[in-house]
């Protein structure tokens, strides 16, 4: 009888431990499923001395939880955006011109920033590189940009090189928990007569496996 009671107690303890582990796992951040929306980005390009770079802000950035993208009660735009990006300079090569213009962007990287007190402005591109750097992504291959008239289209994949935890809306976040393998982004761009407006929009989805990206 004692052996039966001991067995029951052991089983009950085992179930309690398994439930506790299961509860812990449920609360842990999980990567986004492959092809799940990762972000919407709005930005501009600058050409300085033959080198190109881009900067801008995120209208949405998936954090696996609710979190404000913009300062409440302020106009939505770069000046109120908590999350911004800034790229390292890269070179651009023209392949052909004409009705269909094609250019190649060299391999490059870009960083994401969290601005607790936003204040970015497209008239000052370095304002998008303020605050806490929370991640760095690398484009491991050349990007082809197609242009017809004023309309530009481009697609690229970028791997997550490093990320840093940050606090936002009372919670701790880390992009390696939701985008460990990086993103693939489709971009649509055009010209603008207003220097404080975005000239391209990018929609990115999560990459499923790191082996999809060459090194």
Summarize the structure.
With 215 residues, this protein is mostly beta strands. It is built from 2 helices and 13 strands; from the N terminus they run αβββββββββββαββ.
Q: How are the SSEs ordered, and which strands pair?
A:
Layout: H1 2-27, E1 37-48, E2 51-61, E3 83-87, E4 90-96, E5 101-105, E6 108-114, E7 132-139, E8 143-148, E9 151-163, E10 166-168, E11 171-173, H2 175-178, E12 183-189, E13 200-206
Q: Quote the distance from N terminus to C terminus.
A: 63 Å
Please indicate the percent range of residues in DSSP E strands (runs of 2 or more): 35-45%
Helical percentage: 10-25%
The secondary-structure element order is HEEEEEEEEEEEHEE
Number of strands: 13
Q: Largest sheet, if any?
A: 11 strands, antiparallel
How many individual helices? 2
**Backbone shape:** globular
Number of domains: 2
Question: Which secondary-structure class do the elements indicate?
Answer: mainly beta
Explain what the structure shows.
With 215 residues, the chain is mainly beta. The chain has 2 domains: 1-30; 32-212, no CATH class. Helix content is 14%, strand content 44%. The protein contains 2 helices and 13 strands; from the N terminus they run H-E-E-E-E-E-E-E-E-E-E-E-H-E-E. The chain has helices spanning 2-27, 175-178, and strands at residues 37-48, 51-61, 83-87, 90-96, 101-105, 108-114, 132-139, 143-148, 151-163, 166-168, 171-173, 183-189, 200-206. The strands form 2 sheets. Strands 1, 2, 3, 4, 5, 6, 7, 8, 9, 12 and 13 form an 11-stranded antiparallel β-sheet that branches. The chain has a two-stranded antiparallel sheet with strand order 10-11.
